[in-house]
Amino acid sequence: MPGLTSRGGAVLAAGFLVMFVGGGSRFAIGLTLKPMVEELGWNRGTLGLAVAVFLIVSASCMFFSGRLVDRFGARVVLTSGLVIAAAGIASMSLVQTPLQAFVLYGGIFAIGNGIASITPVGVMVSRWFPDRTGFANSLAVSGVGVGQLVMIAALAAVLTQIGWRSVFIWLGIANIVLVPLVIAAIQSRKDDTAPTDAQTPTGLTLREAARTRHFWLLIIVYAICGFQDFFVATHVVAFAQDRGIEALFAGNLLAFMGLTGVIGVLVTGLWSDRSGPFAATFFCFVLRIAIFTLILTSQDTVSVAVFALLFGVTFWMTAPLTVIFARSAFGMAHLGAVSGIIVMVHHMCGGLGAYVGAALFDANGDYDVAFMVMLGLSVVAALFAWPLRKAQGERK
After folding, report:
1. Rounded to the nearest 5 degrees, what angle is found at the Cα of 156, between the Cα atoms of 306 and 22?
2. CA-based torsion, 314, 319, 322, 325: positive or negative
3. Fewest beta carbons within 10 Å, which of 40, 126, 232, 329?
4. CA-to-CA distance for 72 and 83, rounded, in angstroms?
């Protein structure tokens, strides 16, 4: 791969590890949702609202982390975020009231997880690998899926023995242990930005980008994608258990969604390097139309498993494409800010999806209405993605 020197490899590894730990930490709430609400006497909407707050706050921080990485580099941004995330997620082991969950998970952990996120990682990797941006970002983003697989599978296996509170303690340890590894991998400011800083980057400012049709098409597509992603990630374990699937198997479904997600994101990276980001994006939503149609027509064990694993394939397909869409349309000069606001919208709408799913369950006693909403949104996203085929590679 062009740019894969020892320094470049270390930078790529650092990005992968940040996504690995961040992904495992982020999705653990889906594993602990049912035991938490049962022990604490909450309804699912309460914890769903905490997840929504988390996603809104972390999304806002993803935007600001994009601006910060443009100015200070990834090393400072990533290590700061990891320290804050460790404090927030470990403190969740002490939670007793909804307010505490909102402050610790929706506030402190959200800030740290949003700062040490895909935005600075994507900008850092894109600068190191300008000729294979799609595949390089896919390798880094695949850390989320691997983290989801390894960390969630391990925690699901011991959840009944250690309890949900210990899950949060171990996640805090994982975040803080990563700090010295990132410092060692990203040894200097030069490692954040080499080798493309030899030439002054050019491109549109965020204000200029926001005046284009292309920008708003991306915003709508990524908003719908996030709404669906975090609805499924937050509720799939509880949904599976509602359908009679035992807790360990349901937890492993969430974990193995990470494995299928790795497959999907790596294929996406190779695909986008060959033909641009549109085709993989459009395919993602066509597949989701089929997935939500399946789960509305059949909810036996096999169908639930197929639904989860196929959705996992799509889960991170659009993630490495954010910087590619933004770079090709708006240039490199303000890539952190432009890609950061797209990621921010994606995750804010993810918070809405997590909450709406919980609210619809509490209102109806099942997830069928929520699945119908997701099916309709998949159709809308495919329609709004279609015009992007003409714009990829063009500066608007």
Report:
1. 90
2. negative
3. 40
4. 17
SS3 331: strand
Query: What range defines the domain where residue 108 resides?
Result: 6-391
Contact 164, 32 (CB under 8 A): yes
Under 8 Å between Cβ of 344 and 62 = yes
Residue 331 lies in a domain: yes
What CA–CA distance (Å, rounded) separates 323 from 320? 7
Report residue 385's pLDDT band, with 50, 70 and 90 as the boundaries. very high
Phi and psi dihedrals of 188, rounded to 5?
Answer: -155, 170
Report the C-alpha gap between 79 and 64 in whole angstroms: 15
Q: Number of folded domains in the chain?
A: 1
CATH code of the domain containing 375: 1.20.1250.20
| Chain centroid to CA 395 | 27
CA distance 252 to 198: 46
Domain assignment present for residue 147? The answer is yes
Residue 387, both tokens: 């015009």
33 found inside a domain: yes
pLDDT in tens, 253-294: 887 887 898 888 888 888 888 888 999 999 999 999 999 999
- Kindly compute the dihedral angle of the four CA atoms of residues 183, 189, 86, 116, in this order, to the nearest 10 degrees: -130
3-class DSSP assignment, residue 203: strand
User: Six-digit token pair at 115?
Assistant: 């700062």
Rounded-to-integer distance, Cα 36 and Cα 28, Å: 12
Residue 395 pLDDT exceeds 60 = no
Residue 26 has pLDDT above 50, yes or no: yes
Alpha carbons 51 and 32: distance in angstroms, whole number = 12
Q: CA 319 → CA 138, 204, 394, distances in Å?
A: 8, 21, 20
